[in-house]
Amino acid sequence: QVTELVLDNCRSSNGEIEGLNDSFKELQFLSMANVELTSLAKLPTLSKLRKLELSDNVISGGLEVLAERCPNLTYLNLSGNKIKDLGTVEALQNLKNLKSLDLFNCEITNLEDYRDSIFELLQQITYLDGFDQEDNEAPDSEDDDDEGDEDDDDDENEAGPPGEYEEEDDEDDGASDLGEGEEEEEVGLSYLMKEEIQDEEDDDDYVEGGEEEEEAEGVRGEKRKREPEDEGEEEED
């Protein structure tokens, strides 16, 4: 039931890895990077295998085995091996579903017109060493995630770098610190002046109010005095 198996940095013995056999019928991804593999002669039959990583080994030929035992391969990584000529790669023509081939750090990459020759020889592949014939990079889900993160970072930068706002805030704080003493003095003086003015107004109001009350009392007193006199005059009449 295993669909993915990574055996990187294990050590092969006589061209095979102990335990890897035909029983892995559901295997779709197999990685055997840096296992000192010299040949694929003992590779088991893995009919459902789609991706095979064989980088950093010492494979120099015998690639025809792949079409026999892993006919459904879509991705093959042979980077860092001892592949030197086009004749060795020609055996991959029988991998009809192969779409991506990596030959990084193989001597074959030093050949003149290397890329054009490989694309002409293996017409079924779309990507060689991660790029198509127009030098467009092969899509990768991890790269897409990274690009999404970068876009988020760009959006944050467009919104305004926090550093600038912090500097402006610091400047504003400095300006307010410089003027605090002066402002406090001005506020204190004006506040005191207002208090004095209000006190004076209050005193005036109080005095005026008192005078009015005194006048009112005087009027009342006069009325009271007049009333008995008026009554006396009436009686005399």
From TrEMBL:
Keywords: Chaperone, Chromatin regulator, Cytoplasm, Leucine-rich repeat, Nucleus, Repeat. Residues 131-187, 197-216 have a biased composition (Acidic residues). Residues 130-237 are annotated as: Disordered. GO terms for molecular function: histone binding; phosphatase inhibitor activity. It holds the Pfam family LRR_9. Its main location: cytoplasm. GO terms for biological process: chromatin organization; regulation of apoptotic process. The keyword Cytoplasm applies. The keyword Repeat applies. It is found in: Cytoplasm; Nucleus. Gene3D superfamilies: Ribonuclease Inhibitor. GO terms for cellular component: cytoplasm; nucleus. Belongs to the ANP32 family. Multifunctional protein that is involved in the regulation of many processes. This is Acidic leucine-rich nuclear phosphoprotein 32 family member. It comes from Rhadina sibilatrix. The gene is Anp32e.
